[in-house]
Write a structure and sequence with these properties.
- The structure holds three protein chains of three kinds.
- In chain A, 56% of the residues are buried.
- By secondary structure, chain A is mainly α.
- In chain A, 71% of the residues lie in helices and 1% in strands.
- In chain A, α2 runs parallel beside α4.
- Chain A has a single domain, classed as ABC transporter involved in vitamin B12 uptake, BtuC (Orthogonal Bundle), CATH 1.10.3470.
- Chain B has two domains: 231 residues, Rossmann fold; 143 residues, Rossmann fold (3-Layer(aba) Sandwich), CATH 3.40.50.300.
- In chain B, the strands form four sheets. In chain B, strands 6-7-8-3-9-10 form a six-stranded mixed β-sheet, with helices on both faces. Chain B has a six-stranded mixed β-sheet with strand order 16-17-18-13-19-20, with helices on both faces. Chain B has a four-stranded antiparallel β-sheet with strand order 2-1-4-5, with helices on one face.
- The radius of gyration of chain B is 25 Å and the shape is globular.
- The two termini of chain B are 44 Å apart.
- Chain C is an all-alpha fold.
- Chain C has a domain of 222 residues.
- Classes of the chains: A mainly alpha, B alpha/beta, C mainly alpha.
- Chains in contact: A-B, A-C, B-C.
- The interface between A and C is large, with 61 and 58 residues.
Chain lengths: 331, 513, 369
């Protein structure tokens, strides 16, 4: 039982970056934009948070008092602002300039990873540490402060109350996104834009504005995933490449949850579980098998993709105009 | 005509697309509490005229008055604001949304978003006029007629009191049509102005209070439906026979070439497009296919060409030895492999017959690229063919390396026809071969078709201009609603009689004698 | 009416000559280089001339550097060539990473399992065949489902990359030299079994030659063969393809097989010739960069030579410069990204004409015709 609780709570922590990323990408894809720049954006979100936190950490290390509010807000705003810029860039290229979405997204990922590693590397050099990492322990302590202590709490506390505030924010955003998509006028209009922009346009919906807003909000949400990863999950330790392929996993999660943010909450925990399953392998087993576990999320995603296309149920498909630029005069 | 209850007045409306005049100084009134039928052949400018009311197009000249006030309708939204709603032939609905969601899409009245309330309003509209719509049903689960109903409710929901329906019955079964008409009558009785675009005479007689007729973009006249009859309307619609002086050489040694028997075809939605169609096309003759568009012409040609799934019936190709060979169930490649030289000039020139982004010479290759045993394509022959076509048909193009999408409509068609006849066909299928072409190009095409005929090719010519069909064809087959409604000799055929066959539903038996 | 129209009006261009289009792209490249120069000036206070001469030096400074450059270009170009036939058919094969890794894995397996058991030339051939097969299978799986059920190939191929990555990771652990190192070291270091031959005394020459041959092959395949023609037609219009009797499903599957097979060849080269080892980052992300190279080169293999040169030059050059300027080597990725953004953005001016309100009355009427 205890092992299960421990496993679940670790799976949840693991799931949060994925949940941020996939909620962001769902919003984006609902507007018809397939943003393959999400891995880059999450990376940029993470490093921007680190950039914002770095001077604070240095002041704390130097013994200065820094208000916890500033510690939370400065990295958070840095992260949101940088992710927003990335979202705007993507929109400018794909919506305004109608560039190919796949190519733009991949270029953003190249750029984002480069950006992250560049500033990561530079800060590491600045901090003068021997290890190839930036350590922001004090910042992380505030970010990961939870109601219940991870190590001492009982099962309930451990399962539900042992996470930093960003974890709850992820769930709140996902639930809100689900609500907006399903229950509000904006959500309805957004879905129409992603499905059939020409019809939405004819109904008087400003297609480009919806694409911009959805994609930028999506980028900022995804960026938070990066922030959570470094300041909470990784205990404030940034090392280049540490984020791994979580960005792509978030895109897989979008498909796996069939473009529904509420489903993504549960699905991300499943993915998180699969991701860390290897740590729970009984000792003595061949360690290679853990790589196969890590493959599992992608394989199940492929299976979901295949089955949904075979069954051809209309509301379990990608948004119909996903990946296509909209040009009014072409209808 | 300047009655006080005119909801819409259109005055001197002119609209041109390039060199084509779609509407020429049209003058039309639409009254409240009346169903107006807008009657005309294909290309007579009915839809264009109504599109200017619904904000899709903006007129080049002329004025529009709504309730005696001059308005400028520059977008669909402005049309809505004036209470004009149009139901297009292609529905503008989002498949994965429900009926209610589609109906309220894009609306923002400032109040809280409440689908339940909207559904109630939808239900009350439905009750009022007798629609059957389930607000919670997804569009993709709906039949065509249900989708159309959603479109109508959508327009009413937004408070339209001028309703335009563009050929609403084209996709409906007779029962569904009856139901639609009942609803339209309810709306008329409610004081709304209803316009129905159609080219079916019996519908005009069935539903309308008044009929306005357009011909070749011009307003011909209007009258109370009760005070007119089918013959008069046909007359006004097709006009007097015009002599075009198209050559019609006598057929040389005609023999049966294509024998179609009891052909029935359904489209992907399961709607019957061809119903028990039988006829014979002879070599050395032109068989003209007349009919309002959408009556199965496309399906007929595509069935013969091996591009359409056939439900039942047979299509036999009679070879030179007089033996029949079945074409049903074969794809274009296997038809070619059988040694049947079949050429097809489809209606969709740049979407099907040609590749717009490829140059002339590459487009010539579409038919011939498989020739030769090597893995490589032979570029010289198509290049030469392209040059020949350009020279012989005087295609105006910078070079044969120019992408065909840059050519004008007439030149595109010359390229397509040129390629199709270059393969020395025994059967030539053409669909709307001169649509959108200027006079000179049209005559070039007629000449080409006649030349093929003289060489013993069996030509099947689908056309929309009756004058041309009457002068060009040796035989005329009339299709109406997927059925054969007439099969007559081309020489001496009476235009009015053909016109009647085109608009008469199910009248095949009497006319065939 | 006029006062209701937006300030600018877009019209799709159909008449731009390819020469003019390349001039626009050239301007975009120049602009991006200027921008990168200014950025570097701002960040590191290095003047642009110094930056670019250092970059040039970094790429061409020594014989070894030139060979490394050529080897990198080959790797990127090879994958770009591989994805091109699929793209030309409008089938978004984003799975070059995975297809290449599958080929690399098969190659490694042959080297490890058969090394020393069969003669080297035979081993090379077996390696090649298995790499080609593995890559082709990796490409065929998504193609099959796309052709059959219309499964979205963009997402499918993307996912297949990570299945391949994890499969490679799995085998790396199985074959690792020291337990827990997750590293298989240099394969057959002692015997050099399965190492592809070094010709002309240059380790990378084989790669360059094979990729050059593949480039020429692809150029000819796309331009002069019946298959290439069919790919063109299917990409332009499936309706036309059916009209002339092309079996669209078969063409999709056949083309993806080819695409995957060439990725397999790249994997074979990377393991057998360049690295003699297998890691999950074997491709250095070139599978994704290849997508951009192919697209930016308008699917023309010959232009890809230049495009991949440009990207590698920027990336490696900047990394080299960065280390000498005590910047971080990832600076190369940033500059690459910037160049890409400029090139992506400039396509807009090639595809659309922007018309300002004043003179648009006539044009806006024309579009409706």
């Amino acid at each position: 039982m205890n092992a299960l609780i421990a496993f679940l709570s670790r799976a949840i922590v693991q799931s949060i970056p994925l949940l941020f990323g996939s909620t962001g990408e769902i919003l984006t894809e609902k507007s018809g934009n397939l943003n393959l720049g999400i891995p880059g954006i999450m990376y940029v979100g993470a490093i921007s948070g680190v950039i914002g936190a770095f001077p604070l950490q240095q002041r704390i290390t130097a013994g200065e008092a820094v208000s916890p509010f500033a510690v939370i807000m400065i990295p958070l705003l840095c992260c949101l602002f940088a992710s927003l810029l990335m979202g705007l860039l993507y929109c400018f290229l794909t919506v305004t300039l109608k560039a190919n979405q796949n190519v733009t997204g991949l270029a953003m990922t190249t750029f984002g990873l480069g950006f992250g590693n560049f500033f990561g590397g530079s800060l590491i050099k600045l901090s003068g540490s021997n290890a190839p990492a930036i350590v922001l322990t004090d910042i992380s302590l505030i970010y990961s402060r939870s109601i219940a202590d991870k190590n001492t709490a009982g099962p309930i506390g451990k399962l539900f109350f042992s996470y930093g505030f960003l974890a709850y924010l992820a769930i709140i955003i996902a639930v809100t996104a689900a609500y907006i998509l399903k229950k509000t006028r904006i959500g309805l209009n957004l879905r129409a834009v992603g499905e059939n922009p020409a019809t939405a346009d004819a109904a008087g919906i400003n297609v480009n504005r919806y694409k911009y807003v959805a994609t930028c909000v999506g980028s900022m949400t995804a960026g938070l995933g990066g922030l959570f990863y470094v300041l909470d999950y990784a205990s404030g330790v940034w090392s280049n490449g540490g984020f791994g392929d979580r960005g792509w996993l978030a895109i897989a999660l979008v498909i796996f949850s069939l473009w529904r943010p509420a489903v993504a909450i549960g699905a991300s925990i499943v993915f998180g579980g699969l991701f860390i399953l290897n740590a729970f392998i009984p000792s003595g087993t061949n360690l290679a098998i853990k790589e196969i576990y890590k493959m599992a999320p992608y394989v199940v995603t492929i299976i979901v993709l295949i089955i949904s296309s075979m069954r051809n149920k209309k509301d379990k498909q990608p948004p119909a105009s996903l990946g296509l630029a909209y040009f009014r005069e072409e209808r | 005509m300047d009655g006080t209850n005119a909801a819409v007045k259109m005055r001197n409306i002119t609209k041109t697309f390039g060199s084509v005049v779609a509407n020429d100084k049209v003058w039309l009134d639409i009254y409240k509490g009346e169903i107006l039928a807008l009657l005309g052949e294909n290309g007579s400018g009915k839809t264009t005229l109504m599109n200017m009311l619904s904000g899709i197009y903006f007129p080049d000249e002329g004025q529009i008055f709504i309730n005696d006030e001059e308005v400028k309708i520059t977008s669909p939204k402005i049309a809505f604001d004036h209470g004009i709603g149009m139901i297009h032939q292609h529905f503008k609905l989002v498949d994965v949304l429900t009926a209610a969601e589609n109906i309220v899409l894009g609306l923002n009245d400032g109040s809280k978003f409440d689908l339940k309330k909207a559904s109630e309003k939808i239900r009350s509209i439905c009750e009022m006029y007798g629609f059957e719509v389930d607000p919670a049903q997804k569009i993709y689960d709906m039949s065509v007629s249900q989708k159309q109903t959603v479109e109508i409710v959508k327009v009413l929901y937004r408070g339209a009191d001028i309703l335009i329906l563009d050929e609403p019955t084209a996709v409906l079964t007779p029962q569904e049509t009856d139901r639609l008409f009942a609803v339209l009558r309810n709306m008329r009785d409610d004081g709304k102005a209803v316009v129905i675009i159609t080219h079916k005479l019996h519908e005009v007689e069935d539903i309308s209070d008044r009929v306005a007729i357009l011909r070749k973009g011009q307003f011909v006249g209007d009258m109370k439906t009760k005070e007119t009859n089918a013959a008069e309307m046909t007359n006004m619609m097709v006009g007097h026979a015009v002599s075009l002086n198209i050559e019609r050489p006598d057929p040389v040694d005609p023999k049966p070439r294509i024998e179609v028997k009891n052909l029935t075809v359904r489209d992907v939605d399961g709607i019957v497009k061809l119903n028990d169609v039988s006829f014979t096309a002879n070599s050395g003759e032109i068989l003209g296919i007349a009919g309002i568009s959408g009556c199965g012409q496309k399906e007929l040609l595509e069935s013969i060409a091996g591009l359409q799934k056939v439900e039942s019936g047979s299509i036999a190709y009679i070879n030179d030895k007089g033996e029949p060979e079945e074409l049903v169930g074969k794809d274009p490649l296997s038809i070619q492999a059988m040694g049947v030289a079949l050429s097809f000039v489809p209606e969709d020139r740049l979407g099907m017959g040609l590749v717009g982004n490829m140059n002339l010479s590459d487009n010539m290759m579409l038919r011939s690229y498989r020739r030769g045993k090597t893995a490589f394509t032979d570029r010289r022959a198509p290049h030469k063919l392209a040059e020949n076509v350009v020279n012989e048909l005087s295609v105006s193009t910078p070079s044969v390396e120019t992408p065909v999408r840059r050519l004008s409509g007439g030149n595109v068609q010359k390229v397509l026809v040129g390629r199709e006849i270059a393969s020395a066909p025994t059967v030539l299928l053409t669909a709307y071969a001169v649509r959108g072409l200027d006079i000179n190009s049209s005559y070039t095409i007629y000449d080409l078709i006649n030349k093929e005929k003289k060489q013993g090719v069996a030509v099947i010519y689908v056309g929309e201009d009756l004058d041309v069909l009457l002068e060009l064809s040796d035989k005329i087959l009339v299709l109406c609603g997927g059925r054969v409604s007439g099969y007559i000799e081309g020489r001496g055929a009476d235009k009015r009689k053909v016109g009647m066959m085109m608009t008469k539903l199910g009248g095949a038996a009497e006319d065939e004698e | 009416m006029k006062n209701k129209e937006p300030l600018v009006h877009l019209v799709k261009r159909s008449d731009i000559s390819s020469g003019k289009a390349w001039i626009i792209r050239g301007i975009a490249i120049l602009a991006s280089l200027v921008f990168c120069g200014l950025l570097t000036l701002a960040i590191a206070k290095v003047n642009p001339i110094k930056l670019y001469s250092a970059m040039f030096e970094g790429n061409f400074g020594s014989k070894r550097r030139i060979w490394v450059l050529l080897s990198n270009i080959s790797a990127l170009l090879g994958l770009s060539i591989a994805v091109t036939p699929a793209f030309k058919m409008r089938c978004w094969n984003l799975g070059a990473e995975g297809q290449c890794l599958a080929g690399a894995l098969a190659t490694t397996a042959c080297m490890i399992l058969l090394g020393g058991k069969v003669a080297n030339p035979l081993l090379w051939a077996i390696m090649l065949v298995s790499a080609v097969l593995a890559g082709a299978i990796w490409g065929f799986i998504p193609a099959f489902f796309k052709a059959r059920y219309g499964t979205n190939e963009t997402l499918f191929t993307l996912m297949m990359n990570y299945v391949a990555t994890q499969l490679v990771a799995y085998f790396i652990v199985i074959w690792e030299t020291t337990k827990g190192s997750a590293n298989i070291g240099v394969i057959n270091q002692r015997t050099e079994a399965g190492w592809l031959p070094v010709i002309g005394g240059q380790r990378y020459l084989l790669n360059v030659l094979i990729i050059a041959a593949l480039t020429i092959f692809m150029f000819i395949y796309l331009k002069y063969t019946k298959h290439g023609y069919e790919i063109d037609v299917v990409g332009e219009s499936e309706k036309t393809a059916r009209y002339i009797g092309i079996n669209v499903r078969n063409v999709i599957m056949r083309t993806m097989l080819l695409s995957g097979a060439i990725c397999g060849v790249c994997g074979w080269l990377l393991v057998g010739s360049t690295n003699h080892t297998l890691t999950t980052s074997l491709t250095s992300g070139y599978g994704f960069t290849a997508v951009m190279v192919s697209w930016l080169s308008r699917f023309d293999p010959l232009i890809m030579i230049f495009s991949s040169f440009l990207l590698i030059f920027m990336n490696k050059g900047a990394s080299e410069v960065a280390s000498s300027l005590s910047l971080n080597e990832s600076y190369g990725d940033i500059l690459t990204g910037i160049v890409l953004f400029f090139l992506i953005g400039c396509e807009f001016f090639i595809n659309y004409r922007v018309i300002f309100r004043k003179k648009n009355a006539e044009v806006s009427e024309k579009k409706e015709a």
